[in-house]
Amino acid sequence: MDSETGDNIKSDHDGAESLKFTPQRGGTLLASRTRTLHSGCKKVNSSFKSPVPSTLNNSVCVDEEIRELQKTLLQLESDITLLESEGVRVHELDLHINLLHEYNDIKDIAQTLLGRLAGLRSVTTRDLYARFGMELDD
């Protein structure tokens, strides 16, 4: 700061005034820092490209996707009608789905335990299946 005025102004040798810069950590002045020059490397200086493909700009793709979804909807509605005509009710399907989730959870736990046991015994999981009389498809 200028001791007389309290401003952040400094005079050059030729009398021109310029702003003083506050030193950063390490003692370098902001004014002495330069920007990184344009690198020849494409990865450094390229603009961001989203990994998600943009289909909003392409109305043909959107129209095709809508047709596919409508086709899928019609197929699902016909499947529902067929199941209802066979006497299957929605709450029965929900119960069946919940039981399948429970079965899969129990199977995952069993697979984990068999893997750990195989590791402790220094054998393969396949060997344990044979030892316990289980099929590999179980």
Task: Tell me what you see in this structure.
Keywords: Coiled coil, DNA damage, DNA repair. One of its GO terms (biological process) is double-strand break repair via homologous recombination. InterPro entries: DNA-repair_Swi5. This protein is mainly alpha-helical and 138 residues long. It contains four helices and two strands, in the order E-E-H-H-H-H. It has a two-stranded antiparallel sheet with strand order 1-2. The longest helix is centred in the last third of the chain and has 32 residues, at 90-121. It starts with 8 loop residues before the first strand and ends in a 7-residue tail after the last helix.
In short:
With 138 residues, the chain is mainly α. It has helices at 42-45, 59-85, 90-121, 125-131, and strands at 9-11, 17-19.
Largest sheet: 2 strands, antiparallel
Strand order of the largest sheet: 1-2
Succession of helices and strands: EEHHHH
Tally of strands: 2
Report Rg: 35 Å
Average pLDDT rating: 76
Given as residue ranges, the uncertain stretches (5+ residues, pLDDT < 50) are 1-6
CA-based shape: flat
Query: From the helix content, strand content and strand pairing, which structural class follows?
Result: mainly alpha
Count, helices: 4
Proportion of strand residues: under 5%
Distance between the first and last residues' Cα: 80 Å
Helicity, in percent? 40-55%
